[in-house]
Amino acid sequence: MLVVDDDERNAFAAREALEILGHEIVVARSGEEALRLLLKQEFAVILLDLHMPGMDGYETARLIREHPRTRDTPIVFVTAVFRDETHIFQAYQAGAVDLVFKPVDPFILRAKVSVLADLHLKTSQIKRHAEEQQRLMRENASITEARLAAELALRKARERQDSILRSLPVVFTSRMSLHPFGALFVSDSITPLTGFAPGRFIEEPGMGLGRIHPDDVGGVVDCLMQASKSGAYACEYRWQCADGEYRRFLDQGVWVPGEDGTDGEIVGTLLDITERRQLEEQLAQARKMEAVGQLTGGVAHDFNNLLTVVLGNADILLRRIEEPKANRQLAAIRSAADRGQTLTRQLLAFSRRQQLNPEPVGLNRLVRDFAPLMKQAVGEGVILDLQYSGTEVFVSVDPGHLENALLNLAVNARDAMVNDGRLTIRIEERSEPSCEGVIVVADTGPGMTPEVLQRVFEPFYTTKEVGRGSGLGLSQVYGFVSQSGGRIEVQSQPGEGAAFTLTLPLTDLRPAPVIDMEPAAPIPTGSERVLIVEDDPAVLSVCLDMLNGLGYRCEVAIDAAGALARLQADPSFDVLFSDVVMPGGVNGIELARQAQRLNSSLRILLTSGYLGESGLEEVHDFEVIGKPYRNSELAERLRAVIAQTPDRRASAQA
Fold it and tell me: How confident is the prediction for the chain on average, in pLDDT?
């Protein structure tokens, strides 16, 4: 309580009268002092004397009411002078809630002040209660908001988890340990995997085991029955889904013992590994094909050396012997050697080691021009249906080998249809996922079983009768397409025919104009000096005879070291004719490079029956003639190399 009175006696009397109420009493001797106290402390009641020197009670009350901190504090005026109605009215206008006249009756003063003090205490208590209620409401709202946020986050987490579990090809399962073929629980992700709802597996105990492939049932039963003994299980099997297709599943889990000695349960996961197994099988097939390709390439190399000797000697003898019977026999030998050459080329095609000469080719035009020969090959009983692309499709490929691949596919389709059916050749251009030209060769034959389909591109594999095929046709197509930077795929089912899809990369280049062929010229000869490098004595001998017969002056070496020694001793050689694959650590390609460093004007002609992948990449720097070669072919290639100017040789090597 604040007592404002300039008379110390009046202030003392007020203090004495109010102390019995038990409240703290503060005395101010002027209006200014009272205002300073009101700015620092809060008071329940102000006893304000009206008649004071300086700032009187009216002015002090007005200033108290104007300040937001004190405008609601009750003011009781105490006066001994102003008793008329005018001053009483003015006191109420100044903000007084009551007046007390001096001399003050202690009982009346205590009664009035007690009421105002109690009112202040009650108001403060109500205010505190309201503030506490507001605080509790804010805290409750904050807790409610946090709880709702937590529930929303939990719901989102559960929805996300359920979405992930449904999208993953993983199924969570639970089985009884004593009856492992019936399910206690199956997660919802079983539906996109199998096409069946989870409830089917729980309601129908035989559902899981009943749709396993018959060949896999025994292994699955043994595996699950051992789970409670070994503590874990893992088995792989084929399971028939709702669409009738068999998918391959990996079923694995652990045995969880039950509480209180119960039997427990088997908790596991089911994983769809169909695509993974297919990729593994494709990888194994690719590795097998690569291994077979390396083997066939090595065989072709040795075989080509033998054929070079046979063909070369046959050509030499045919020129020297004029007796008709001997000529027929030599022609038969050469014909057999030609067939052997065709066989080695097929082997090299499969192993992707053949020499290709890719150029821009329009698929529509190539198929249109080649159609008469294919029609003749398949016979009158087969309808040849040619479906061209709306615009020309240009690819970079060796046209002769592509025609041979199409012929192989056409003949293979004819044999499958037993000379009666429809052979469709369709040309397309695809832009997704990459720019490709496509040739689809489809037949209406009996189709292939999965076992045949898996081995269809293997060399020497054939379903034809003995003597009706070597089994190299499709393998040759496979090797050619792969070496050309494309791929070949086949789709077939029993009773639905077969469709081979050849995919080749597009090119922005266009074919050169067609030039009329000149009449065949006689075999060219020469007199230049030629250094022959060959490690096979038989091949070296026949090559020497062939070049000597053409008029060339020849010397020989059996390896790169001997050849370099001769070139260093005598730099006047015009041509180096060397095998590519030779013993001694230096092959024909490296020999050619070192030889040209010794003599920049030296012409180079290389030969090989098998180059290998590294050789195919490096041999483009030089002219190459493949083994076996005929006398006329060697003569023409040798003259072409000799006729090259230094600028042309540099351009070819670049």
Answer: 82
Residue whose C-alpha is closest to residue 591's, from 558, 561, 556? 561
Contact 267, 251 (CB under 8 A): no
Helix-strand-coil percent breakdown of the chain, rounded to 5?
50, 20, 30
* CA pair distance 216, 210, nearest whole angstrom: 11
Judged on CB neighbours under 10 Å (0-12, 13-18, 19+), 348 is buried
Cα separation, 598 vs 565, in Å, equals 11
Phi, psi (deg, nearest 5) at residue 478: -60, -50
The 3-state secondary structure of 560-575 reads HHHHHHHHHHCCCCCE
Task: Render pLDDT for 218-274 as a digit per residue (tens, 0 to 9).
Answer: 888 888 777 767 788 888 999 999 998 899 999 888 888 776 656 678 888 888 888
- How far is Cα 380 from Cα 630, in angstroms, rounded to an integer? 36
Which two tokens mark 387? Answer: 């479906």
Q: Whole-structure pTM over 0.70, yes or no?
A: no
pLDDT in tens, 2-38: 999 888 888 888 888 888 888 888 999 888 888 889 8
Distance between CA atoms of residues 523 and 320, nearest Å: 15
Residue 100's pLDDT is: 83
Structure tokens at 210: 């009943």
